[in-house]
Specification:
- The complex is a heterodimer of chains A (267) and B (290).
- Chain A has 267 residues and is of the alpha/beta class.
- Chain A folds into two domains: 3-233, P-loop containing nucleotide triphosphate hydrolases (Rossmann fold, 3-Layer(aba) Sandwich), CATH 3.40.50; 234-267.
- In chain A, 37% of the residues lie in helices and 26% in strands.
- Chain A contains eleven helices and ten strands.
- In chain A, the strands form two sheets. Chain A has a six-stranded mixed β-sheet with strand order 6-7-8-3-9-10, with helices on both faces.
- In chain A, β9 (213-218) and β10 (221-227) form a beta hairpin.
- In chain A, α3 (102-109) packs parallel to α6 (146-159), α4 (123-129) crosses α6 and α6 (146-159) runs parallel beside α7 (176-192).
- The radius of gyration of chain A is 19 Å and the shape is globular.
- The model of chain A has no long low-confidence stretch (mean pLDDT 89).
- Chain B has 290 residues and is mainly α.
- Chain B has one domain.
- Chain B is built from twelve helices and two strands, in the order ααααββαααααααα.
- In chain B, a hairpin with a 2-residue loop joins β1 (130-132) and β2 (135-137).
- In chain B, α1 crosses α9, α2 runs antiparallel to α3 and α2 packs parallel to α4 (92-114).
- In chain B, 49% of the residues are buried.
- The mean pLDDT of chain B is 89.
- The chains are: A alpha/beta (267), B mainly alpha (290).
- Chain A binds chain B through residues 52, 54, 57, 78-80, 83-84, 88-89, 91, 95-100, 104-105, 107-114, 140, 142-145, 156, 160, and chain B through 89, 163, 166-167, 169-170, 172-174, 176-185, 284, 287, 289.
């Protein structure tokens, strides 16, 4: 099994001074979904930005380490070139073009296929995954609901026929029912279109139910990784990320142990 | 009353040219969020290019127009590459200040290259005035309006309906997101500057035909900036409507109140309208979802 994406020991520094990632490594095997979990500020989004080449925009830089996509080093490739090679990022907060219609939003994504000699995925195929968007295709994207905008954001990715998707918190700010629907579609895209995915999430339970492998990031480095089932069974992961701590028990001495365990992780 | 119609018509014709100049501001602002204070002087350069090709080199006017467009596009692309590209990601105000400096540089360059004297552009429009019923519109103004109108329509179609137009609007809305979708953002900026320089060149030829050509012609660009603000900096329909309004008001006040008021009344109206609609007639406040 070859890795579509390989991140090797990267360090990321913002403004030349603030170190955010400290020797982070991960790999996404071809055709699989890998989850990257962690709390706020752990470095999940920074990891994605390092991969997709958006660090320079925020005055960040890759200080060391390498990132390989399909075996080629991509740490210096500008974002629009990466997309054209098939590495598509669905950014946090959906980022639809508010003044453009739904259809024009999809049309912009066809730029991802420049120079690849492939036709963009017909919009009809996108609407098959998201029937709601078909009815709204002449609407301005700014007037869509949050869920519809997330569908549009993923729809744009589909148009681009990506080989690999980086998904940054697709569940952010959505009702639980919608989250379930969107994750169902993400799973379908992975299976039907053979798209490898790196899924960044705070909703760990949802992400691990989808992924085959997971990494947990704390303070800019990976603290646990393993196959999704093993992570879901792990005592620490259960308690810190899945909210399934041994409920109902007295919490006196355990709280202290909890603190110590937490501390061991962070050191 | 017959004068009113005639004066109005001439005013609207001039307003059409204002609208074309305004369009250049809007194209650059919409895509790059920069108010380009050098736009008037880019227009002035367009007029000088035409003068050089048509008068100094004595080429046929049609060929001279084509060469002028090519030279202006190169000027626009050059400015974007040399002056603006290094400032990518800097605060908008720094970039705007640089365009103010650029305006001075272009002004000085025109004086050095072509001397500060007055020139007349070779006439490209028929000599006979346009006569509609009893009304009489000077040839340069009338045909100039038609040219401006045609140019505006072409740019409108390019921006609205072509794939690169959609990408330009996407870049205008969210540069990072556009780039994450494979749009080459610096290339879009270059395209916006080229479109703006092309529209400026056409406007320069028309304005140069109506008035005389000298290095202060760029100042018209500044008064058109008021038009742009009236229309709403990021609205193409707004720029067109505002151009027509200002041209019309100028003509009316010039005719009924005398030339001294011509430059004042339209701006009084501008201030009043902006007090009521601070975003301009069609400028977009942010979309708010309810």
């Amino acid at each position: 099994m070859s890795a579509a994406l390989e991140v090797n020991n990267i360090e990321v520094v913002y403004h030349h001074t603030i170190q955010v990632l400290r020797g982070l490594s991960l790999a996404v095997p071809e055709g699989e979904i890998v989850a990257l979990l962690g709390s706020n500020g752990a470095g999940k989004s920074t990891t994605l930005k390092a991969i997709s080449g958006f660090l320079p925009l925020e005055n960040g830089a890759l200080a060391s380490g390498s990132i390989r996509f399909d075996g080629r080093d991509i740490s210096r490739t500008p974002p629009h070139r990466l997309v054209r090679r098939g590495l598509f990022q669905v950014m946090e907060g959906r980022r639809v073009f508010e003044d453009l219609t739904v259809e024009d939003n999809l049309r912009v994504a066809s730029y991802a296929l420049s120079g690849r000699g492939e036709a963009p995925l017909p919009f009809d195929a996108v609407y098959e995954y998201f029937p709601l968007l078909r009815a709204l295709h002449r609407q301005r994207a700014g007037y869509l609901s949050g869920g519809e905008q997330q569908m549009l954001a993923i729809g744009r990715a589909l148009v681009a026929r990506p080989r690999m998707l980086l998904l940054d918190e697709p569940s952010l700010g959505l009702a639980p029912k919608l989250v379930e629907e969107i994750f169902g579609i993400i799973r379908r895209i992975n299976r039907e279109r053979k798209v490898s995915m790196l899924l960044v999430e705070q909703n760990a339970a949802m992400a691990l139910s989808l992924a085959s492998y997971g990494y947990i990031i704390e303070n800019g480095r990976i603290v646990i990784d393993g196959p999704a089932e093993r992570l879901m069974a792990d005592r620490d992961v259960k308690e810190f990320y899945l909210g399934l701590g041994s409920a109902g028990r007295t919490r006196s001495y355990r709280d202290v142990k909890h603190y110590r365990r937490r501390k061991r992780w962070l050191s | 009353m017959e004068y009113f119609l005639e004066v109005s018509l001439v005013g609207l014709a001039v307003g059409g040219v204002y609208a074309l100049i305004a369009l250049g501001y809007v194209l650059v602002y919409k895509t790059t969020r920069v108010v380009n204070f050098a736009h008037g002087n880019i227009m002035m350069f367009g007029a000088y290019f035409f003068y050089t090709f048509a008068a100094l080199l004595g080429l046929h006017w049609a060929l001279a127009v084509v060469l002028t467009l090519v030279a202006s596009a190169a000027l626009g692309a050059g400015i974007e590459r040399v002056v603006l590209r290094p400032l990518l990601g800097r605060p908008a105000i720094s970039v705007v200040m640089v365009t103010v400096g650029l305006a001075a540089v272009l002004h000085g360059a025109a004086q050095m290259i072509w001397t500060p004297g007055d020139f007349f552009l070779p006439s490209i429009f028929p000599d006979a005035p346009i006569i509609i019923g009893e009304m009489f519109i000077p040839s340069n103004t009338g045909y100039g309006f038609l040219v401006a109108l045609a140019a505006i329509l072409i740019f409108l179609v390019l921006f609205r309906f072509t794939r690169s137009g959609v990408a330009m609007r996407a870049t205008a809305a969210d540069q990072v997101a556009a780039s994450s979708m494979g749009v080459n953002v610096p290339a879009m900026f270059r395209l916006a500057w080229i479109y703006a320089a092309l529209s400026a060149a056409i406007a320069g030829i028309v304005v140069g035909s109506i008035t005389t050509l000298n290095p202060t012609m760029g100042l018209i660009g500044l008064s058109v900036l008021a038009v742009v603000i009236l229309g709403g900096l990021d609205s193409i329909p707004g720029a067109i409507l505002a151009g027509l309004i200002i041209g019309w008001l100028e003509a009316l006040t010039g005719f009924y109140l005398g030339g001294a008021y011509k430059d004042v009344i339209p701006f009084v109206v501008l201030i009043v309208i902006l007090m009521i609609r601070p975003y301009g007639l069609f400028g977009t406040p942010e979309i708010e979802r309810l």
